[in-house]
Please model this.
Amino acid sequence: MLKILGKASSINVRKVLWACDELGLPFEREDWGSGFRATDTADYLALNPNAMVPVLCDGDFVLWESNAIIRYLAAAYGDGRLLPVAPRERARIEQWMDWQATELNNSWRYAFVALVRKNPDYSDAAALAASVASWTRHIGILEQQLATTGAYVTGNSFSLADIPLGLSVNRWLMTPLQHAHYPAVAAYFDRLSQRPGFLRHGRNGLP
Model:
């Protein structure tokens, strides 16, 4: 059975939980991370030298980095359902996953820590405003893509890209800031909310 190391409140752990839900994969999960078992111990660092969650253990195969984990799960167990084998279709999905992990994530870091985590070290008004503006601009890029597809990130069908991006939209909507009017993003969020896995691991009250 798959083993997932990481607390269920982590957005990156939730990617893996949602992917398992979509693929019908049973798993065991252990609480690791802030507030639970420490990730800076020798045993954990032997699994992930970055001391981050999640870590996936599939027998003797160990993998870290949430997007890499869900790619692996879809490729190993998905029979092409979430991640096609065809190179161009697969590349399009992975393009948006990589964009989420780099461009989109970097845009919201300061704002999220300031507004949701309320870290006193993140109190620079100019830096906060810049982060909110960048976050809004990046969600606007997603808005344009969703307005083009009319459904999911890469087309008419739900794909692996919708897991990290769906969680990212949930985080944006749950952060207390002035939200731009993005009707395609709103419709996308409602569409994802028809999926039980998203309700369990995405739209579940956690940012």
Observations:
- The CA atoms of residues 71 and 79 lie 12 Å apart.
